[in-house]
Design goal:
The chain is an all-alpha fold. The protein has one domain. The protein contains twelve helices and two strands, in the order H-H-H-H-H-H-H-E-H-H-H-H-E-H. A two-stranded parallel sheet has the order 1-2. The longest helix has 30 residues. It is globular, with a radius of gyration of 20 Å. 32% of the residues are buried.
């Protein structure tokens, strides 16, 4: 059983021969990324405006078991990606595919987890599962649509978070950024949100130290962009949370823009490597 699972999740020829390419991989171009995000945001806004001003519908649209089925599907996909990434990472470390040459400092599993050597190409086991993770981000885009159809307002913060997660997953692949192993693993493993901030901060510090002291990390530019984006999101969340505390007791509203941010949404917005 375990041998069969290992084969299908880390040793299958399709996984071993995978290569991220604008010409060979589906949905792997900058044009598709920008166009799809633009269409999604436009469609979300049109749905919100149609329900609010044209149809003037106040009651939620019944969705039946659709949201639950979608959540179940996403859970199964996340579990598969996590299992595949775990087995693939173990296999890559075993095969020494990304270890530094003997002329460099010896690479430990933790160093490999945070810092791919310069010149690493987006090919092989780990990048295959990172690619599937990237594709799965588009399936998550249905969640804000469900929120709109339930007439819970326009979930601006969640829309922004989902778009950022897609851009981040794309950058991981485009620039062979090692933080994908860290980010995809924590997301796919369903780690709780309690330590999200500390996990992200610790991972960022680790990447920076390894880049400065161990001869550089591949895709450091993409890592820097993601770090800045993380900082912007964190500032926005803190600002929103402070305002919410100040206006506590002021009563709720309805029908407008939904800016409520749960702890799970906050952690999701911070997963951008």
């Amino acid at each position: 059983m375990m041998m069969s699972l290992t084969y299908w999740l880390s040793e299958h020829p399709s996984i071993l021969t995978f290569r991220w390419s604008h010409t060979q991989s589906h949905f792997a171009t900058w044009w598709f990324l920008i166009t799809s995000i633009s269409i999604y945001l436009t469609l979300s806004l049109l749905v919100h405006l149609s329900l609010t001003h044209l149809l003037r519908r106040r009651r939620p649209i019944p969705l039946g078991p659709l949201p639950a089925a979608h959540s179940l599907l996403m859970s199964l996909i996340s579990a598969t990606i996590f299992s595949g990434l775990l087995l693939s990472s173990v296999a890559e470390l075993r095969d020494s595919h990304w270890l530094y040459r003997r002329t460099r400092a010896h690479t430990t599993p933790l160093r490999w987890l945070l810092c791919f050597p310069p010149g690493t190409r987006p090919a092989g086991r780990v990048f295959f599962w990172s690619y599937l993770f990237y594709l799965s981000r588009f399936l998550r885009l249905f969640r804000p649509i469900f929120t709109l159809l339930r007439r819970e307002g326009l979930p601006v913060f969640r829309l922004f978070g989902h778009v950022v997660s897609i851009v981040t997953a794309f950058l991981w692949l485009e620039f062979s950024q090692s933080f994908q192993v860290w980010g995809v693993g924590w997301e796919g493993g369903g780690v709780g949100t309690g330590g999200c901030g500390g996990r992200e901060c610790g991972g960022n510090v680790g990447v920076l130290l390894l880049h400065l002291r161990r001869g550089g990390c591949n895709g450091i530019g993409a890592w820097g962009f993601n770090s800045v984006l993380n900082g912007v999101v964190l500032v926005r969340f803190v600002n929103f949370y402070v305002k919410k505390l100040r206006s506590a007791g002021g009563g709720g509203g309805g029908g407008g823009v939904n800016t409520e941010v749960s702890s799970s949404t906050t952690c999701e917005l911070e997963r951008k490597r």
